[in-house]
Amino acid sequence: MSLFRISSHVSFGISKFVINKPALKQVFPTSFVGITRLYASKPKTLKERLSELVPEKQEEIKKIKKEHGAKSLGNVTVDMAYGGMRGIKGLIWEGSVLDPDEGIEFHDYTINECRELLPKADDGEEPLPEGLFWLLVTGEIPSKEQVQALSAEFAARSAIPSFVEDLIDRCPNTLHPMSQFSLAVTALQHDSNFAKAYQTGVNKNEYWLYLYEDAMDLISKLPNVAGRIYRNVYKDGKVPPIEPDRDYSYNLAKILGYSDNKDFVELLRLYLTIHSDHEGGNVSAHTTRLVGSALSDPFLAFSAALNGLAGPLHGLANQEVVRWIFHMKDVIGESPSDETVKEYVWNTLKSGKVVPGYGHAVLRKTDPRYTAQRDFALKHLPNDPLFKLVSQLYNIVPGVLHEHGRTKNPWPNVDAHSGVLLQYYGLVEQNYYTVLFGVSRSLGVLSQLIWDRA
Asked: Is the pLDDT of residue 361 over 90?
């Protein structure tokens, strides 16, 4: 088996060599992780490593454009144009590729490989999302020391201005959490490094340096912003402080009021990792890039993305899954027979509605993000009645949809599971779920925005 393979799905059909990780594991079964981290023998900060990679990538892109610039990536059909450009290869997205059979891959690492290889907290088994952000930015697996340094940097940058706190506090509890989230992120633009540098006429070759600082600031402040919204709308309005020596997910859990539950902290680490990036064609990712292409700073671009994420066909999908399951439970009971569940699913389809959480525009198998959450549930909450109902649907719905014949992919996607896990740990406020999605999605879209300016 060769240690290298040709990746034809990277950069939309432009092939390049990448490490064949399964082969490498066979040759070096006990030291694979060490090999992926050789470059980190002398730990560098993320910004230092990125400063090395930017000129290399710039030269690579020049070469690709010179050698392949005139090549066609395929035909564009009328159906594609009417279908919202679905299927058109039109933009390069650096961080992830959505493979119809393998699911999402982050720089050629699958979900399972990320769960295995990315550094973990001393008391945890799930990957730290800080490590996933490093991977998305650099294409490399970081060392544990580098991830710990990134956690500390996020904590150090986490404070939000008092006027933004006042802005959030003045929002009525009836204003949707996603509207408050977008409003607060827009207000953070007041301190944008990129916007100020652009106004002073900074050289465009240095754009990425200032945008990087904004991206780091924004990601760092999101737990305080998201947590303050949650505390105001659903709790007592009191926001506990960020702990400077703890990881990103722990601090988010603390602000939400769930850090005493170790398993919930682990769930957040998994959730923030697997929801972070999903190629560039989805609404939130495309919106971030589109608004950013006008040289709008990351705060303005990400605020726009959050408005797209708030839509029922994007970030609200997991909320709709939970509501559908609860309605089903109310109608047919908590422990229905398989036949009763099957009949309910058929009734949903016959009424002209879809079964939320099933089907995907690209995937043609069960979403690996769903599988990762199912693995977590089997380990931590195997006897939960709601999880048992989700498992029942997992065994029944694909067959019904296949028989129905109008669904290209009858398998569950990520949204079919995430809400049920949050329900189990007591975070039952469904209108808030998309805010957590937004915190996670910042890691993917902002890493791409850095590279767009570089």
From this structure: no
Give the active site residue among 108, 297, 415, 417. Answer: 415
Q: Is 275 a catalytic residue?
A: no
Task: Give catalytic status of residue 236 as yes or no.
Answer: no
Q: Which residues partner with 96 through β-bridges? A: 106
Question: Is 278 annotated in the active site?
Answer: no
Name residues whose C-beta falls within 8 Å of residue 330's C-beta, 6 or more positions apart in sequence.
none
**pTM across the whole model:** 0.89
Q: From the candidates 314, 330, 384, 452, which is the catalytic residue?
A: 314
CA atoms of 355 and 321, how far apart (whole Å): 8
136/194 Cα distance (integer angstroms):
21
- d(Cα 14, Cα 35) in Å, to the nearest integer? 27
Which of the following is catalytic: 99, 360, 367, 417? 360
pLDDT band at 16 (very low <50, low <70, confident <90, very high): very low
